[in-house]
């Protein structure tokens, strides 16, 4: 009888222990992504005034879209020092403490202005980039050629996949005459290994929204700066691949331009419009550049400090709100699409 009395005495404690064990399990349930923020062109020696607005939005994910520092050097000590300046920035430290950090690079953090596969320090620079992003030392990505990666967030049925391309490591040469970039009609941007990887990521994606990010603009054709349109064969191959794989909810992200804009096109064989959000100018913009042709642009061209944001409303279908915000968290651009 005494044994049963002791057992009843400990029942409340056993209940508390069982409850305590259950709570962490419940807390680890995967939640749908609410907000993804992104940006580019972050010069480490200029005032870092955009971070409070970014943090105010509490993004689940932050995506670097290139020129994350202005390294422009073959000296890896110089690049590391500049990366460290960003890592020590209090606003970025706050973001790292609460958001998943992913990204890719463009030319200035790659190490060579307007550079492609001719950059002789690309292997060493790649390791510094992975250090900055926080890629584990034993990650297979550290052994690949290029900083492309994919990341899936959210539970089944409410997933977002972020596919980040490297448009520098394998890119063919691009000539400049009188400061004007020439067209490399047969040139490649990604390299065959990365093309195969991208096709696999799109064909096998189970996500409801598939985001493809890289450093330079994909849709705009008329601007005279670096863009996928300088490599028309590669640009068409990318657009054809998006259509052929039938991946749902593809949205393009890009940086580089020191402006922000949203572009939109309709591709034959695609059941929804293809949007591209360019967000560029976290620390500096081209203030005089407010009238540039872009037949795909919807809304205005923004030449103020900015970052981008995607907000997701999950119901039977997913509504994605695309925004460009300023340093005071004001909204410059807003578009919405349902998939």
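Q: What amino acid sequence fits the structure above?
A:
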């Amino acid at each position: 009888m005494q044994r049963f009395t002791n057992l009843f005495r400990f029942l409340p404690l056993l209940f508390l222990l069982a409850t305590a064990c259950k709570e962490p399990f419940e807390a680890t349930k995967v939640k749908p992504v609410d907000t993804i923020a992104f940006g580019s062109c972050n010069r480490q020696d200029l005032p870092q005034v955009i971070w409070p607005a970014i943090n105010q939005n509490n993004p689940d994910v932050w995506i670097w879209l290139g020129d994350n520092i202005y390294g422009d050097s073959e000296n890896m000590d110089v690049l590391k020092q500049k990366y460290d300046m960003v890592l020590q920035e209090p606003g970025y430290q706050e973001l790292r403490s609460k958001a998943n950090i992913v990204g890719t690079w463009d030319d200035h953090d790659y190490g060579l202005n307007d550079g492609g596969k001719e950059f002789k320090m690309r292997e060493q620079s790649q390791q510094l980039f992975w250090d900055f992003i926080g890629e584990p030392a034993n990650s297979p990505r550290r052994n690949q050629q290029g900083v492309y990666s994919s990341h899936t967030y959210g539970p089944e049925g409410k997933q977002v996949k972020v596919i980040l391309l490297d448009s520098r490591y394998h890119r063919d040469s691009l000539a400049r005459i009188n400061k004007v970039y020439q067209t490399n009609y047969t040139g490649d941007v990604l390299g065959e290994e990365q093309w195969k990887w991208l096709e696999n990521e799109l064909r096998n994606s189970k996500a409801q929204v598939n985001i493809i990010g890289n450093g330079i603009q994909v849709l705009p054709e008329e601007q005279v700066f670096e863009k996928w349109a300088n490599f028309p064969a590669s640009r068409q191959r990318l657009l054809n691949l998006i259509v052929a794989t039938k991946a749902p909810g593809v949205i393009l992200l890009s940086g580089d331009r020191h402006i922000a804009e949203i572009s939109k096109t309709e591709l034959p064989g695609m059941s929804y419009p293809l949007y591209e959000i360019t967000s560029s100018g976290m620390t500096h913009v081209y203030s005089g550049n407010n009238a540039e042709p872009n037949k795909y642009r919807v809304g205005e061209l923004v030449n103020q400090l900015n970052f981008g944001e995607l907000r997701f409303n999950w119901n039977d279908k997913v509504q994605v709100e695309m925004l460009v915000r300023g340093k005071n968290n004001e909204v410059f651009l807003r578009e919405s699409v349902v998939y």
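Q: And what stands out in the fold?
A: Residues 2-27 form the longest helix (26 residues).
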